[in-house]
Amino acid sequence: MSLSTVIHAGLTHPAKPVHALVLMGGGARTAYQVGVLQAMASMLRLQAAGADTAPFPFRVLVGTSAGALNVTYLAASAGAGLQAFEQLAQFWGRLRSQDVYELNVSPWVRFSRLLAAVTLWGNARRQGAILNNMPLVDTLHHAISLGGIEEALHSRAIDAVAVTASSYTSGVHWTFCHTARDGRREPWNRPGRRAEFQPLTIEHLMASSAIPFLFPATPLWVDGRREYFGDGSMRQVSPLSPAMHLGAHRILVVGVGQPERAGLVGEASPRGPGMGGIAGHAMASVFHDTLQADVEQAQRVTRTLQQLPREVAGVLPYRAVEVLAIQPTQSLDALAQAHVQDLPGPVRRALGGLGALKGGGGALASYLLFEPAFVQALVALGQQDAYARKQELLAFFGSGTA
Q: What are the tens digits of pLDDT across the range 27-78?
């Protein structure tokens, strides 16, 4: 997060602050976001005297990886107001791993690490990844109405929706933005980060959510050429920046990191972490390590601006940006460890054959456990964490819900 981004974000002064929602990535872990948003919607509904017709509370939606799937679902449902969050919860309630990916392996792989490794390597050679995520294409086509996004934009239920993806071809981190007037918006270009305004497609979502090594890359056209994209969490050095560029003045960001994960990894072996621990650590580095630093920097810059003398602040062409960040207060790795047996049989056999589900294997499993028990546990934790910060959430929307 740079000062120039904050300055750019504050060049306009709307009558009411523009609220933005930023949802980070993390595979199945992003069910946690559903719980946070459900609880938030309940709080706002009470403020609106129980009216389900209360307006959708965010003008700008920005998502990465599975967080991109959540924000586009919400964008397509924004015309329903607060009910959009309940619809998202219902979608997750129906979701299963088989709706997201598939893996066909022999039952014998559980007995041999060599056979498991050869099988998974063969998949990687054929499709560029261990898992086949074509089921997700069909799921998204049925679940997300691209026409609904257009309707929400043109009816002014929302102002903008954006998803991020990382180009394997050029190394550039792209944000694909969609508004009611894409042709009139000026994209931004920063070192290693670029934006483009265009209608969003299912391909954008597949690219943003293509977890490295697990899901294959997705081709997209940028700058008149085809590039291959993977998960937007990779090389994401400034996750709050797109929301600011799109005009946000208050940002609610929901991540799926966690306060502690070293304990599970340390149990792997006296010789050090096992395959599961290393894989979980690598995934955590891809998905979570940049958010906290970006939030802290944005808050630090905002505090500095607020401490300026009033006469100085009055002549400056920018304003402070308020950021409220919510992340799990409990270890999602430990939560997933208790549900490892719910993984689809082929995945459990293959990863178990490699020893990747022992000693911290819950970390890796947590990205793949699109199963009811784990999802509901995440939703419940999200609700619990949101209610624990009820006053902050209500203050965030204090001057109006849009």
A: 999 999 999 999 999 999 988 775 556 899 999 999 999 999 999 999 999 9
The residue assigned the tokens 């430990």 is 334
Pairing of strands 218-222, 225-231: antiparallel
**Cα–Cα distances in angstroms (integers) from residue 255 to residues 31, 41, 64, 160, 328, in the given order:** 11, 18, 10, 20, 8
- The per-residue pLDDT for range 277-316, each reduced to its tens digit, is 666 666 666 666 566 766 666 666 666 666 667 666 566 6
Nearest-angstrom CA–CA distance, 372 and 71: 21
Summarize the confidence of residues 165-193 as an average pLDDT. 93
CA–CA distance, 194 with 176 (Å, rounded to integer): 9
pTM, whole model, 2 decimals?
Answer: 0.86
User: Which DSSP category does 222 fall into?
Assistant: E
Exposed/middle/buried for residue 402 (C-beta within 10 Å: 0-12, 13-18, 19+): middle
Q: Which of 208, 173, 223, 169 is nearest to 193 (CA)?
A: 173
Over the Cα atoms of the chain, what is R_g? 21
Q: Burial, 260: exposed, middle or buried (Cβ in 10 Å; 0-12, 13-18, 19+)?
A: exposed
Q: Which residue has the tokens 């799926």?
A: 256
